[in-house]
Specification:
Number of strands: 2
Distance between the termini: 43 Å
Shape: elongated
Keywords: Cell membrane, Coiled coil, Membrane, Transmembrane, Transmembrane helix
Strand content: 5-15%
Oligomer: single chain
InterPro entries: LapA_dom
Structural class: mainly alpha
Pfam families: LapA_dom (PF06305)
Protein name: Lipopolysaccharide assembly protein A domain-containing protein
Radius of gyration: 31 Å
Order of helices and strands: HEHEHHH
Strand order of the largest sheet: 1-2
Organism: Falsiruegeria litorea R37
Largest sheet: 2 strands, antiparallel
Length: 118
């Protein structure tokens, strides 16, 4: 399975490098359209190779997706934490009750009573 993953990553790397080499032409990215920039009074533009724009867009999409899922799953993580705390509290209570019922008894007899109770 590990070799299959390495083969997939290698093929992906070859594809990304070939796309990057094929799209080295520069493109201009503008913050706002030229007509609107004249009205607003500022015009921010940057020239980047096309592969940087494409790969940057993919990377930004992946990061936004991860953050979106992390925020969406917050309620599930919170519920799991609450349940985990409740289980730990109940386990401590059971241990305390076992110690209280076996108080004053011989350890061997307490173990036997506990085994027969199950």
């Amino acid at each position: 399975m590990r070799y299959l993953r390495y083969a997939f990553l290698g093929a992906l790397a070859i594809i990304l490098v070939s796309v990057s080499v094929a799209n080295r032409d520069f493109v201009t990215l503008r913050l706002v359209p030229e007509d609107l920039a004249g009205v607003l009074g500022f015009n921010f533009a940057i020239s980047l190779p096309l592969f940087v724009v494409v790969l940057g867009g993919i990377a930004a999409g992946v990061i936004i997706g991860f953050v979106w899922e992390w925020l969406r799953e917050h309620k599930h993580r919170k519920e799991a934490t609450v349940k985990h705390r409740e289980v730990r509290k109940l386990e401590r209570e059971v241990t305390k009750l076992k110690d209280k019922t076996n108080e004053g008894k011989d350890e061997v007899l307490a173990i036997l009573d506990e085994a027969t109770a199950k």
